[in-house]
Amino acid sequence: MAALAFNIDEAYEPNAHEIEAAGNAARALSRVDSSRPIHITVEGAGEDVISLPSGVFNSIVKMLVEIGNGHAVTVVPVQAELTTSQAADLLNMSRPHLIKLLERGDLPFRMVGTHRKLLGRDVLTYRSRMDAARHDALQGMADLDQEAGLFDDHATFDRP
After folding, report:
1. Do 108 and 118 contact (CB within 8 A), yes or no?
2. Which of 61, 114, 134, 142 is most solvent-facing, going by the fewest CB within 10 Å?
């Protein structure tokens, strides 16, 4: 079974007005109880009510948060096949470094002729693992600083 193709060049780049609007929407929607389906009324279309499952609603809010922070966004289906360039872009690393990770066995891939293809799911899982490891390492360093008395809650810094 062939996986879906994915084009990272289709990422949505928001303008200044859209960044502000998305930030406002994200703040408003993040206060909604998303533990159950969300019902949204669409104005101008006969006042239709749309029901969104909580997972879909939370994904939309996350996308709005990213746009509100000025970041380009795109939707990557987890079953999409990515090229090494696309995967490297998603992981914010160079393509040669990604190739080293693939050859070391850190990420699964398949060969299509002479090209390596990665599943979006695998790339996103790897990114989550690396984010968690980075967080744990930073927390460990902060804990060591705290134990050594190097952390000061009341530190002030003079700006030049």
Report:
1. yes
2. 114
Distance from C-alpha of 45 to C-alpha of 47, rounded to nearest angstrom: 5
Q: What is the pLDDT of residues 98-137, one digit of tens each?
A: 999 999 999 999 999 999 999 989 998 999 999 999 999 9
Contact 34/57 with Cβ under 8 angstroms?
Answer: yes
Q: What is the DSSP string of 110-145?
A: EEETTEEEEEHHHHHHHHHHHHHHHHHHHHHHHHHH
Element (H, E) at 66: helix 54-68
14 within 8 A of 22, measured Cβ to Cβ = yes
